[in-house]
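QUALITY CONTROL LOG
STEP: pairwise intake check
CHECKER ROLE: data steward
CRITERIA: each record must contain a sequence immediately followed by its structure tokens, with no blank fields

ENTRY 1 OF 2
RESULT FIELD BELOW
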Amino acid sequence: MPTRHLNQTELSARWNLSPRTLERWRWLGQGPKFLKLGGRIAYRLEDIEVFEGARLRQVTGSAGAMATATIRRTGE
């Protein structure tokens, strides 16, 4: 089965963020892996899904830190 690719516009719509955010992430070395093909940017669906999976969270960072502090304080 061929690899599915999304362009910058498609990925920004998937994540509901500005295409400029994806441009900035590429410039900063953040965001999912991408291909540059003759001046065009493409994102492999498998790389997008890996990036999404690595960011799954149960709680936010501050809430998680507060829960850990509460457990330590109460001895639970």
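ENTRY 2 OF 2
RESULT FIELD BELOW
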Amino acid sequence: MEMTTSPLTLFTAILLIGGTAVLCFTWGNAVAPGIGQLDDLGYLRAFRKMNRGIENPLFLVVFFGAFLMGIAVMYTHLKLEFGIGGGINPL
């Protein structure tokens, strides 16, 4: 089976967007309710420590990679489907 650019970018985009969705789901259902029970000062301290811990290269790749791969999927779909961006128009 030949792997072209479009399925590979689609697969990568699905993985990265899924990783971002899992992160948001976990944060909203596990982390936020837990730290929401703290007093204001404890909430701010906990939130700052978690933000410092989560902001790392892997997080940046998953979070911003999902956006960039979404754009790449749209571009390759338009290029393959409608011939936009150069190449041979299959229609």
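INTAKE CHECK: passed for both entries
DESCRIPTIVE NOTE, ENTRY 2: The chain has a mean pLDDT of 82.
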